[in-house]
Amino acid sequence: MSRLTPHLTRDRTEQYLLGALPPDAAAELEAHTLTCDACARLLQEEALLDEQLYEVAAAASREAVVLRPARWHRPAAAAAALLAVAASVFLMLRPTQGPGEGPVPVPPVAMVREAPQEDDAEPLDIMVACPDLATQEHCLRSASARGLLVYHPGGMGEVPRYDASTRLPDVALSSRPAAL
Amino acid sequence: MTTLQSRQETDGALRPGAAPDEEALSRRALAGERGAWDVLIARHQRRVVVSLLARGIRVDRAQELAQETWARLIQQQQRGLLTELRLPHLALAQASFLAADDARRTRRESVDSTVEDLPERQQPVDPSQSAERRLLSEEQLTRARDALAQVSPGARNVFLLACDGQGLPHSEVATRVGLSVQRVRQILCEVRKKLRTALEEETHV
């Protein structure tokens, strides 16, 4: 009886825990773990990993809420500034582009960053964290052109500065702060 | 049918995310609406079962306990004992309580009966080892966080959406990020593999 059902593989166990197995395959897997201790153990380990992943995700998303632009690494800030320039160029060029004109040479990075923001479709709640004092002006201009809120590094703008300890209201950050 | 339809209506009214949707569902469940309960149970059932499996409970027993969890929650709601419904946390707490209760009862029974009848079947894994492993150490967490930082932003977004504790179903994650459900699951498997190696690194050292 138990010899007929195959042992669990890691992949199949993962699929089962994800709920991706068809019902009969899932039932077969369950029946097998009832008769095979090694497979029951494997299933438990995978389930435990699942729980740990939830823990990791909870820790990670809690950290992502805290905005401290002053501590951003230099290379990251430079990359963000480049992205901001590229995105704003893309934004400025896009409306003028008629349907008949050829494609404007846009750096592919800007295209990639652009796509998920448009999915959100409610730009009013998006807060833009300006990376640096050097690029702040530019960032502010391009963001206000899009009607976004800007988070200034110096805390001088329309959005107040938040300390690391006070959590931003979750509603305001239903989408994560987007670096332009 | 009607519940599905009204759910879509609330979806349309409160577009930004499923959190308000979940909130509305919880409110209706608290008011005693069976349809809302059904939707919530379907959404969180897998999470509850997996959490029970992670405690070393057999599949069949885990499913029984999950059923009992929901039954108890509905019972409490009908008696007016539930003031707020925060899923999946409430269900997970209830399930872990039932699991502990269950373990206690079987242990007591095994003391009463003969040694041969010891219910090994119910505890396939050494519980001390799994209890020790259940809590992640700080190093493990930072390791996992580093590994997560190396994952591509899209994949990380999918992972965080799927695992952030709200219990979003994969189909909903898929519509939010604009991918297919299969692709979402594939991404979740990849992230999981990376995090597994990150978490296990420390235990072998």
From TrEMBL, chain A:
Domain of life: Bacteria
A Pfam family per the record: zf-HC2
Protein name per the record: Putative zinc-finger domain-containing protein
Residues of the Putative zinc-finger domain: 15-40
InterPro entries: Anti_sigma_zinc_sf, Znf_put
